[in-house]
Amino acid sequence: MADTEMREPTLFILASLASGQKHGYAMIHDVAALSDGRVRLKVATLYAALGRLGTQGLVAPAGEESVDGRLRRYYALTEPGSEALERELQRIEANARQLRSRLQARPASMRAALGGAA
Amino acid sequence: MADTEMREPTLFILASLASGQKHGYAMIHDVAALSDGRVRLKVATLYAALGRLGTQGLVAPAGEESVDGRLRRYYALTEPGSEALERELQRIEANARQLRSRLQARPASMRAALGGAA
DNA sequence: AGAACATACTCTGTTGATCGATATATCCCG
DNA sequence: CGGGATATATCGATCAACAGAGTATGTTCT
């Protein structure tokens, strides 16, 4: 049970697998597309994460394939992985909501200076 | 500047200061309230972060006060700190949006056979 | 009075995710 | 043949978070 914060690359790896099993290199492109180019997985991060998530039971190997003499190792999201992703997503949604609400509320020094609408 | 991901405690510390200057211990309570009890700053995390954010120019010392013989060190959000917070918030809002959109999209295959518990 | 707890700041040592760099191997294009 | 894309893997460094312990003062309960 991970109550520790999941980081951006890890989150996107799980999300990438949420639309079906993929091999490592495919995730790099998928995550880049999904994030509009913002999140660029580094290979070291990716393979370290896949190993870690495998140990935690959040992803599982889903077979191998050889295409043009190149090996592809597929991974799939497990049921616990799917649940963990949903939990983490709810966490960052809560963070976004609560942090945004605080930013909307301005400090007294600024409230005095502003008319009403920004 | 900082294109590295800002972590949950750091984000909430900056947000706490966004509503006005505070001393360390007050931030712990403020962040707990703001996050509905979810984020509980550890003292080591807090003071390490304040030192770090000070070095980065995102927060600045805002005077000291002694109440009942106990020292209070106040900190304030700087202009760069405010901008960094807004940028990071936009990042996690984008993450939330993009990750959620992927989860809404139905998984291509059923994953009935996978998973741990049950 | 003594214990326990809350306030308030500080430091040390450890863990763990990310990342730069490097390595191996195959295939395609010019 | 050289360079790029595909595809996987590992090493070492970095750094935020954390557990834990320490210092000091004031309040509350028994």
Write the layout of secondary structure elements.
Two copies of one chain form a homodimer.
Chain A: H1 8-17, E1 22-23, H2 24-34, H3 43-55, E2 59-67, E3 70-77, H4 79-104, H5 108-113
Antiparallel strand pairs in A: 1-3, 2-3
Helix pairs in contact in A: 1-2
Chain A binds a DNA duplex (30 and 30 nucleotides) through helix 1, helix 2, helix 3 and strand 3.
Protein name (chains A, B): PadR family transcriptional regulator
Organism (chains A, B): Microterricola pindariensis
Pfam family, one (chains A, B): PadR
Task: Walk me through this protein's architecture.
The structure is a homodimer of 118-residue chains. Chain A contains five helices and three strands. Chain A is an alpha+beta fold and 118 residues long. A three-stranded antiparallel sheet of chain A has the order 1-3-2. In chain A, 32% of the residues are buried. At the A-B interface, helix 1 and helix 4 of A face helix 1 and helix 4 of B. Chain A binds a DNA duplex (30 and 30 nucleotides) through helix 1, helix 2, helix 3 and strand 3.
